Amino acid sequence: DGGITQSPKYLFRKEGQNVTLSCEQNLNHDAMYWYRQDPGQGLRLIYYSQIVNDFQKGDIAEGYSVSREKKESFPLTVTSAQKNPTAFYLCAIGTSGAFNEQFFGPGTRLTVL
Amino acid sequence: KQEVTQIPAALSVPEGENLVLNCSFTDSAIYNLQWFRQDPGKGLTSLLLIQSSQREQTSGRLNASLDKSSGRSTLYIAASQPGDSATYLCAVNAGNMLTFGGGTRLMVKP
Fold first, then answer.
1. Which residues does chain A have within 8 Å of residue B101's beta carbon, measured at their own beta carbons?
2. pLDDT in tens, A7-16
3. B3-24, pLDDT tens digit by residue?
4. How far is residue A24's CA from residue A22's CA, in Å, rounded to a whole number?
């Protein structure tokens, strides 16, 4: 928080729809990350980006897509191919390089109806 | 593949107690380890970051230690308060990505 914004806070989706979650930062950090959190569990990495116009798959990228056209923005699209999308989605930022420290946004709770 | 385990999964203590949360990881080749706090329905707040070359870090009533060779970290909370009630997560960084434990849900009773 304090420079990392995620919107919306709550999102409802019908089955078969694509939805896009927003993550914006004004802290000038190079690296941005998307994580998924299921109830009572830790976080799992979906995608990350260390530089504009480049991104890498994490552990659970299937059914998700991202773009990094601007340093400040890293939107996540949850596609209809994602079989179980109901979860809490967290965006993080960090300094580039191996020793980076990550800071998290407030999250978006996605529910599929 | 790195695996991170946190024990216990849940802990309930009376106010004022000192307590220790445990985090273990399977691959000692890490760059750093972070401890986070998460309140229900909220994002993660970074508490402490320990670089691989360090043994411990302190912030107020919190002290985190790291024993990289044995794959262990502990978070010590002194004089616990009801406001400390939250889920505590540890995460290890083995190069640009964090691997998280499942968290310890802490309840401090007045």
1. 42
2. 999 999 898 8
3. 999 999 999 999 999 999 999 9
4. 7
